[in-house]
Model the fold of this input.
Amino acid sequence: MVRLKVTAKGQVTLKKEVLDHLGIKPGDEIDVDLQPKRQAMIHPIAGKLPIESVFGMFKNTTGKSYSIDEINEAIAASYAGEAEQ
Done:
């Protein structure tokens, strides 16, 4: 357990070990969920990734290619419950 002290202005500074545990870095934001019985939960807000991080996410590694008609047929079969498992 980590104990923190409240300043006269009502502020709390999170200790480095808390920040490290939550993966919070300078400039990050956190959410505080107020709970019953005078309790709260702290959650780090997931950081935004640069657009470059998604490049290649859907790379075709099978070497197979499909036409738009084949893709549309597969989608229609899936909706009809006829898709291969």
Summary: The helical segments are 16-22, 68-79. The CA atoms of residues 55 and 61 lie 14 Å apart.
